[in-house]
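Per reviewer request, we include the raw input and output of the structure prediction for the construct analysed in the revised manuscript.
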Amino acid sequence: MNRLRMWAIHSALWLYIGTLVYTALRAPLHLPLLVFIFPLSALSFVAFSALHAWETEGGARALAFIGTTIGIGFAAEWVGVKTGWPFGAYTYSNRMGGHIFGVSPFVPPAWFMMGYVAWRLGEWLAAERHRAWQILLAAWCMTAWDLLIDPIMVYQNHWTWLEPGAYFGIPAQNYAGWFFTAALMYTLYW
């Protein structure tokens, strides 16, 4: 790996970590800066994932992964907002900006950034087993991430469930939808 690419990957990762630390330690004292920090944090995580994918998968495979995860993520969210399937009935607020066909523009890149990390975790957890294990484990990792992030995003009013469920107001269908969508995304990429 050449030095410039390594520097770019590490810079993106440390920028992401820095925004998390800042948010945890300082943001409550400087709430207006969250308008700047939240997108910077998300973009730096997307950049890290993209640069790492490019370095480890190669350009064509990285672009295929980015396209698959963003495309499937957007399609699932769009169908979800319109029909309530596969996640349950919900709507986005305007807290993350406007909407593209009812979907926040920050959400499809989030499917990529976490999709890539979950894919790598699935690869590590599956060890030398068949690729199907990696798909299942990566889908499980994506669902586990949503178990953590969804209650926070609901609490911060980024989206609202029209038929609240038992887990912090989130229906169980949401997590089944996440697992199914992630497994489909990884299967199409594979």
